[in-house]
């Protein structure tokens, strides 16, 4: 899966920018990255989010226990990879139909908590159990939420393209050609929310992640 957002949506850690500056390497623009993904993942589904970004996914080379899915509702768009062990219980909790899958659940849970004070939308992350990674964008509020399970069971990477966009993908090789050295695994036990101030830790969501956590991820 691939998600690309403009620098106006995602404020990346300075360490990720500095890594690319220390050892310059070839990069491409975000549009070239998207086109390369679509060309190598045929058939693929893609969605342009105005000037904010682009989402794309394919079932090509999909792992049996890490299915990919996409859904959109009420200007909320989500890419999801993996499985939730407690999907059935959460479906009941949020009053969804029995046929709802993981990506639908994430959208509905996000929407319910977004509209229900005093809980932040990220509160739902504490309810998810399983192996997963997802990228959710709410066009109505320009809010981005990116997360993987606390143990990082589903690989997720992020990097910076030549034109300053931030890309997320489960395929590191896809990002290497466009992000050069400005690339790292998404930190385990963390999630990103531009509405909550950037990269956060599951254990202490009110605090911003320290630079050491990002630097550790860079040395892979």
What do you see in this structure?
- The protein is of the alpha+beta class.
- It has a single domain (2-218), classed as 4-Layer Sandwich (Glutamine Phosphoribosylpyrophosphate, subunit 1, domain 1), CATH 3.60.20.
- It is 25% helix and 29% strand.
- It has helices at residues 14-22, 30-40, 87-93, 102-114, 172-179, 211-218, and strands at 2-5, 45-49, 53-57, 68-73, 76-84, 130-138, 143-148, 157-160, 166-169, 183-185, 190-193, 198-201.
- The strands form 2 sheets. Strands 2-3-1-9-8-10 form a 6-stranded antiparallel sheet, sandwiched between helices. The chain has a 6-stranded antiparallel sheet with strand order 4-5-6-7-11-12, covered by helices on one side.
- Strand 4 (68-73) and strand 5 (76-84) form a beta hairpin.
Keywords:
Glutamine Phosphoribosylpyrophosphate, subunit 1, domain 1; 6-stranded antiparallel β-sheet; alpha+beta; 6 helices; 12 strands; 220 residues
What's the structural blueprint in terms of helices and strands?
Blueprint: E1 2-5, H1 14-22, H2 30-40, E2 45-49, E3 53-57, E4 68-73, E5 76-84, H3 87-93, H4 102-114, E6 130-138, E7 143-148, E8 157-160, E9 166-169, H5 172-179, E10 183-185, E11 190-193, E12 198-201, H6 211-218
Pfam family, one: DUF3700
Protein name: DUF3700 domain-containing protein
């Amino acid at each position: 899966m691939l998600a690309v957002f403009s620098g106006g949506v995602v404020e990346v850690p300075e360490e990720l920018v500095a890594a690319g500056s220390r050892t310059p390497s070839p990069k491409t623009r975000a549009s070239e990255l998207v086109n390369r993904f679509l060309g190598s993942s045929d058939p693929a589904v893609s969605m342009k989010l105005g000037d904010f970004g682009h989402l794309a996914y394919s079932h090509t080379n999909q792992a049996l226990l890490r299915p990919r899915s996409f859904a959109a509702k009420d200007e909320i768009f989500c890419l999801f990879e993996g499985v939730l062990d407690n999907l059935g219980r959460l479906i009941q909790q949020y009053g969804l139909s029995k046929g709802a899958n993981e990506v639908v659940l994430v959208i509905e849970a996000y929407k319910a908590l977004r509209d229900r004070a005093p809980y932040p939308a990220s509160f739902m992350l504490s309810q998810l159990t399983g192996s997963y990674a997802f990228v959710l964008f709410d066009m109505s509020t320009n809010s981005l939420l990116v997360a993987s399970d606390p143990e990082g069971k589903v690989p997720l990477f992020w990097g910076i393209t030549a034109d300053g966009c931030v890309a997320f993908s489960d395929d590191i090789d896809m990002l290497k050609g466009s992000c050069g050295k400005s690339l790292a695994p998404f930190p385990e036990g963390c999630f990103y929310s531009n509405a909550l101030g950037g990269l956060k830790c599951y254990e202490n969501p009110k605090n911003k992640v320290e630079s050491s956590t990002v630097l550790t991820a860079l040395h892979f």
